[in-house]
Design goal:
Layout lengths: L21 H14 L5 H4 L2 H8 L5 E5 L5 H14 L7 E4 L3 H15 L7 E3 L1 H12 L10 E2 L2 H12 L14 H14 L3 H8 L6 H20 L2 E2 L1 H11 L3 H8 L4 E4 L7 H13 L5 E5 L14 H4 L1 H4 L4 E5 L1 E2 L4 H11 L11 E2 L8 E5 L2 H17 L7 E5 L6 H9 L4 E3 L9 H14 L4 H8 L7 H12 L4 H7 L2 H6 L6 H20 L2 H19 L3 H15 L5 H10 L1 H4 L3 E2 L9 E5 H4 L4 E6 L16 H15 L2 E10 L1 E4 L2 E4 L4 H4 L7 E4 L9 E2 L4 E2 L15 H6 L1
Parallel strand pairs: 1-7, 1-8, 2-3, 2-6, 4-5, 6-7, 9-10, 11-17, 11-20, 12-15, 12-16, 13-15, 16-17
Antiparallel strand pairs: 13-14, 18-19, 21-22
Helix pairs in contact: 3-4, 4-5, 6-11, 7-8, 7-10, 8-9, 11-13, 12-13, 16-30, 17-18, 19-20, 20-21, 22-24, 24-25, 25-26
Length: 723
Amino acid sequence: MDISNFNKSKKTEVVSFEVFDDDDTNSKLSNISGITSHIDFRKDLNNQQFEIINEIKGPQLIIAGAGSGKTRTIVYCVAKLLSEGVNPSEIMLVTFTNKAAAEMIKRVEKLLSIKPDGIWAGTFHSIANRFLRQYAKSLGFKPNYVIIDETDANLLMKIAYNFTEIQADNKSFPSPKTAKNILSYSINCNKTINETIKWKYKQYDDIRIISKLKEIFKIYKNKKAKDNLVDFDDLLVFWNKLLDERFMAQRIASTFKYILVDEYQDTNYIQDEIIRKLSKYTPESNILAVGDDAQSIYGFRGANFQNIMKFSKRFDNCRIYKLTQNYRSVPEILDLANNSIKHNKSQFKKEMETTRPKGVKPVHIISEDDEKQAIFIINKLSELLREGYKLNNIAILYRAGFHSLRIELELQNRNIPYVVHSGVSFFERAHVKDLLAHLRIVQNPKDEISWSRIFSQFQGIGRKTSSKIYEILSNMSNPLDNIISNSSFRNKLNSLKIPKVIRQEIVIYLTDFLKSIKNDKPKEVIIKLINQLTKFLKLKYSNWQDRIEDLKQIGIYFQNYDTIQSFLDILTLNKSTIDSKSVGLSNTNISPLTLSTIHRAKGLEWNIVFIPMLSENLFPSNKVKNNVEAFEEERRVFYVGITRAKERLFLISPKRIKNFKGRKDLNLSQFILELNPKVYKKSSYFDYNNFPMETKDLNLTKRKLKRTKDLPLFTTADSLLKD
C-alpha cells in the first residue's frame, strides 16, 4: 500500500502568524510605534511586572507564580518592544498551544488598537514548520511535504509493520500506536530506544522486541522520506538539525532580535536545545523564558524539570525575576500553598502574596472512609449552593482517575450534574468496559457487543472473525455451558481461519473465566478476571498499573452485591447516567460541577476546590516513595491543586478504604502531616453531618450515612424514594 494514495492529513494546523513581506510590516510598524504612546505601562502593571518590561535585554528567566498575571506580562512585553520600534517580524513568541498564541496576539492587538502583523507566534511545531518550508531542500526533501497528524502517523507505522513478519495486531508486541509513542519519547527526551522502554514500557524490555522495533522504525523513517511526509516529531528534529549548521543557524537566528518562550517548565530536551542554539546566534541573546518551577508536573510526558532550573546557568549574565503577586486566591489559601511547596529542596524559593482581602482558612476533613468522604462532599455542596455559589464555580480535583469512582457514584445517586474535564467518566474508560463486557455475557450470552470486546483482546481477531465466533455461539442453545463442558464450541472454532495457538488461548481463557463464575463468589470472580485481563493491559497500555487500580475499585464495590446479576441490574438501570461525559445535564439551565485530575486542571481556576484522597499511598502515590525527584513532582501536583482555588479549599483524608480483604487502614498523607497546623482548620466528617440541609433546585437533601450496611454501588429510583 502506498501511503501517498490515502488521505494525507486533510487536517491543517492552525497557526497564529501570517505570511508577510518586509515592506508591509515596516509600513505598519510606524503606526504601531506612534499609537502605543497612549499606553501607561507604569499604571497598568505592578512593580514586578513593570521591572521586567522596562528592560527586555539579554537572557531573562521569569519565575511566574500561580495566578500572578503571567500572560499579561508577556503581552505587555510584546507591546513594549513594538512601542520601542522593534519590527514585529523580529519577535518570536513560543507557546504550548496555537490557541494560547492567538489569544496573546489578540490581546496585544487590543492593547495597541492595531494588528501586529508579522510576529512569529505559535507552538514549537508551527514555527518549525515555517522554517522547514523555506529550507526543506537543505535537508533533502521537497518544500511541498505533507505534515501527518498522530492518526496518520500511527497508520504509517502500521504499514511499516507490513514490511516485517510482525503482525500489527500481535498482542505480545507493541501496537503501532505504542511503537510510535516509544519513538516519540526517544526523540523528544534524548533517550535511546532501550532507555525509553526501561522508563515507560518495561513490559517490552526484551532484546528481540527492541531489535525488531529498531528495524520497524527504520522502515517508518524511510517510508516518510520516500513519500515526502513529515510527522510532528520530524518538525522539531529537522529544525534542530538546521541549527547544527553554523551558516544556517546564523541565518535563522538573525531573523529575531527577541525570543519569548512561555511555560518553560514544560519544555522537553529537544525544545530546550533549539532555544539554546538559537540564542547562540541571536544578537545580544535576547531570550525571555517564562514559567514556574513549582508547577512543573508533566515529567511523565517527557517535560524536563531541569530545563527551567538550569536555565540561568546555561545563559551567561542571565537575570532572574519573580512574579509573586497572586491575583487569584485569598491569603489563607496562599499561606497553605507556600507552606507546602517550601518542603521541596529543588526550587526557586518564593513566597506568593495575594492582592485579595482576607478570606477563610482551608479546611482539612478526616473521614472514616472514602464512602463517607463522598457523602461529605455532596453534603458540603448542598451547603455551598444554599450560600449562593454555583456548581460551575466548584471543582473536585484528584490525583488519579480511580479516586473519582465513589464520588461519581454519589453524584449520580443524587442526580447532581457534573462534567469530567478533558477526559472520560469512570465507566466510559475502555478497560472498565472490557471488564464489564465479561460480566454482561453472563447475564446475556446473546450480547454480541460484549463478546466482540472480549474477542478483540486476542491476536489476529478483528471484527469479521469476531462476528464468525459469535455466530457459532449464538447458534448454541446454551453457549456458556457448551464452552465449559462440550467440545462442540472447540470443534467449530477449529473450522475458522485462526492460528491454532490463538484458538487454544481463547478456549482456555473463556473456560477459566466461566468456571470461576459458577464456583466462586462474586468477589473472587472479579479478582480472577483482573488477573486474566492484566496480561492484555500490560501489552496494550503504558499506564496499565493505573488501569488495574480502576478495575480493583470496581471489584471492591462489587462486594456490595450477592450475585453478578444483581450488580448488572443496578448498572443497567443507571446506564443513561454512566455513558455520558456530562452527567445529569438534562436541565440545560444548570451548569455542571467539574471533576478533573489535577494534571488536566492546570491553568484553570474555581471559587471552591475539593481535593480528596489525601491519605498514605494515595496522594502522594505509592509509586514515588523511593524517588526523591518524583516525590517532589508529586508535591508540585498538590501545589497546583491548591492554587486552583480562589476562595474556599477543602482537603479530605479518608482513614481507611475498602480492598479485597475488607478494609485497609491509612495514615494521613505526608503532604498534610508536614503542613503547619496554623495554615488550615482541622475538622471531622461529623462536624459537617450533624444538621439537615436542603437545596430544592437539585434535590440535594442532607444525607446521613447508614451504619448497618455498606452503600450500594448504585441506587435505584425506588430506593431513593424510600430514603
